[in-house]
Amino acid sequence: MEELLRCEKIQKLFVVKDFLLGIKKRKIRALNNISLVVNKGINLGIVGESGSGKTTLAKVLLLLVKPDTGLIFYKRTNITRLPDSQLRAFRNCVRIIFQNPYKSLNPRMTVERTLKEALSSDKSIKKDIEKLITQTGLPVDYKHKYPHQMSGGERQRIAIARALAGNPECIIADEPTGNLDATTEIQILKLLEDLKKNLGITFILISHNLKIVSSFCDRIVVMYRGNIVEEGSTQEILKIPLHPYTRLLWNPLLVENIDDSNHIDDRGCPFVNRCPERKNLCFHTSPELKEKEKGHHVSCFLYY
Ligand SMILES: Nc1ncnc2c1ncn2[C@@H]1O[C@H](COP(=O)(O)OP(=O)(O)OP(=O)(O)O)[C@@H](O)[C@H]1O
Ligand code: SF4
Ligand SMILES: [Mg+2]
Q1: Residue 145 burial (CB < 10 Å; 0-12/13-18/19+)?
Q2: For the chain, which domains are there?
Q3: What is the pLDDT of residues 165-181, one digit of tens each?
Q4: Which pTM does this prediction carry?
Q5: Can you give the pLDDT at residue 289?
Q6: For the chain: N or C, fewer Cβ within 10 A?
Q7: CB under 6 Å to ligand 2: residues?
């Protein structure tokens, strides 16, 4: 199996001013000891509720956000400390569709200019731009449009077209159907499915919706408060979800609305406040991610 991307033991802290606490600084652990591998042709889903660190992980994988510690490898080469000037080829091969296409598309640029900038400037020709637009199912005259002249689904198609520029091997799609209605969501997922099959692109699909991720991906990583709590093949995670949080994700009605943000507290399991199966040990000891079955990892004391 050809390894495309790997990250090892990634940590990322953000320091934010907390005005409620009188401008006291608060640390948020967005990513805690994250390791994962993306192999060519094996589509990976990253699932977790809001604030679990999915977007931060996507940005760290692309080195758009530098990790505090840990390593990123592209095709087994350590690229963690490369300067931005040497990351250009890598960023053509691994592209991202950002979470909110309205924010990520420049409102002052036509589609044509957006795509021209995304293509390598020396060969940005009309034919390439038109091909990118039609590949996403839009008519070529959309090249004259500005973001505000398009619907949410159409803007997302242009964001996908931009990601396709440079013939990527891998695309990270961060909540690609986030603000779309149910019908448009199905159409966008169908488009991504076609690109996956026809162009052989490996996807990393990020979503808070386990159903979307499981219908699209071969493997799934479940995140909670900056931690990977379960990782395995989609089949295994559907058949035998191990972590109590994964089981809860299958039943969104049971997900309590508790403020359980990524504040720093290294003691105990990150899920302990909400876990229906917690034991005393869970309050003061952190479970490690361990292999329960071949290729199926879980971080929970119920299994060791
Ligand atoms: N630039 C930043 N500065 C400070 N804190 C940040 C920054 N980016 C993310 N965070 C914090 O890090 C945590 C993880 O955020 P992230 O955006 O990665 O979550 P997410 O899983 O993508 O959430 P969502 O589903 O809402 O998109 C959150 O607590 C967030 O507030
Ligand atoms: S380690 Fe304990 S608190 Fe954490 S998920 Fe498992 S049982 Fe629940
Ligand atoms: Mg996000």
Answers
A1: middle
A2: 3-303 (3.40.50.300)
A3: 989 999 999 999 988 99
A4: 0.94
A5: 96
A6: N
A7: 243-244, 269, 271-272, 275, 277-278, 282, 287, 300-302
